[in-house]
Amino acid sequence: QVQIVESGGGFVQPEGSLRLSCVISVPESVFNQHTMAWYRQAPGKQRELVGRVSSTGTTVYTDSVKGRITISRDNAEKTVYLQMNSLKPGDTAVYYCNRVTNHYDWGQGTQDTVSS
Length: 116
Prior knowledge:
Helix content is 3%, strand content 46%. It is mostly beta strands. The longest helix has 4 residues, at 28-31.
């Protein structure tokens, strides 16, 4: 069974930064084929896509976070990163990662709380 483990969340003040990590338990050869994405779910809202990174490193970000985040990946480590800067209270959510299509079982996510 594939496992996804997200980490790096925490409590941060507005305009602060966080770097999230996501490790997935698949062989490197499989991971290398995936377009991976970060999602988030705020209290009382549906899970939404934050951005994605292709197997070759091409990124696409949703408009609400564009210019404030960077998604990257380390194929050898089977890890995806989400660097978030200039955080706003509206970024408060549980953050998850998964492949873009045919999702694996979701991990536990990592909680980000942005508040003064």
